[in-house]
Design goal:
Layout lengths: L1 H34 L3 H8 L23 H9 L1 H34 L5 H13 L2 H14 L7 H8 L3 H10 L4 H9 L4 H12 L1 H16 L3 H6 L8 H6 L6 H21 L1 H11 L4
């Protein structure tokens, strides 16, 4: 009886998880399918979008009438502006990730393992800035960026991202999981803080760093508000800005650009999924 009950519960759980996975993956699947349609078929399926009348129709098709790579040709070759915006996204995200990983590992080591006056108060300030939404800090950030002469430059996005508090919070919680015996043994052997940080702490927090890289990539790869405010010239804007405002006469290009834009994020997640799970799990455990 108990065995049958457990099988039924497992079956119900599997069905529910399958339905949730289908709902989550449906937009991705539709984007890929529509990117392989011709412009004429896309217009026929979504031709009434944007109209103000009540006769709005959307024809969701899972199989294209004719498989076409016209949209990818237009995005990658015929219209270089989209490819340039893609590299603009990479040019913003990569420096932010590299810079924040360096700054966060150093700061979190100091906040987790060094003892100095005001350490806990300083970490509390970090938490306060992390909990504030972007809209609250928008005006101070705008004034600071303008005073520093970074307006309409990639630095207006990169520098605030490098010194964001999220990485410090995540890695500090992860470093607290490291048992103090490792550090005390290294001190007894004559190792200084630099050697302890490089030889002991960094190798042990690799899952946390990997989780931070993935979370930062997802966050900044999809950012829209910051580029719209601080990058007023279209030449510096990332592809996420274009994808946030889909025009009716560019539906085909939008689907192809969306698929291309998803590829780096999907590859990163699939290649480092176990690091993400392990890093998030251990970040909440205090040793």
């Amino acid at each position: 009886m108990k065995h049958t009950k457990s099988l039924v519960l497992a079956l119900i759980r599997t069905i529910l998880l399958g339905l949730i996975a289908a709902l989550v993956l449906t937009p991705v699947l539709l984007a890929i399918i529509n990117s392989l349609m011709t412009e004429q078929e896309i217009v026929a399926n979504y031709g009434s979008l944007g109209k103000t009348d009540t006769n709005i129709f959307v024809n969701l098709k899972l199989i294209p009438d004719w498989v076409s790579f016209e949209q990818y040709y237009r995005v990658l070759i015929a219209t270089p502006v989209f490819l340039r915006m893609f590299w603009n996204s990479a040019g913003l995200v990569v420096p932010i990730i590299v810079g924040q990983v360096i700054a966060a590992t150093l700061a979190s080591f100091a906040l987790a393992r060094l003892r100095f006056p005001g350490r806990d108060a300083l970490f509390f300030v970090y938490l306060m800035t992390m909990m504030m939404p972007f809209q609250v800090t928008l005006v101070p950030n705008y004034m600071m960026v303008e005073r520093l002469g970074l307006m309409n430059t990639p630095g207006a996005i990169i520098w605030p991202g490098v010194f964001s508090a999220f990485g410090v919070f995540l890695l500090r919680q992860f470093m607290l999981h490291i048992h103090s015996a490792y550090i005390e043994a290294a001190k007894m052997d004559g190792a200084g803080y630099v050697r302890i940080f490089a030889s002991i702490v960094l190798p042990m927090v690799k899952p946390g760093v990997a989780a931070l890289v993935i979370l930062l990539f997802v966050d900044y790869w999809n950012m829209v508000e910051q580029p719209l405010i601080f990058l007023q010239e279209a030449a510096y804007q990332p592809l996420s800005v274009f994808l946030s405002v889909i025009q009716k006469d560019m539906l085909g290009i939008s689907f192809a650009a969306s698929v291309i834009y998803m590829i780096p994020m999907m590859l990163l997640f699939l290649s480092a999924e176990h690091y993400l799970i392990e890093g998030i799990q251990l970040s909440g455990v205090k040793g």
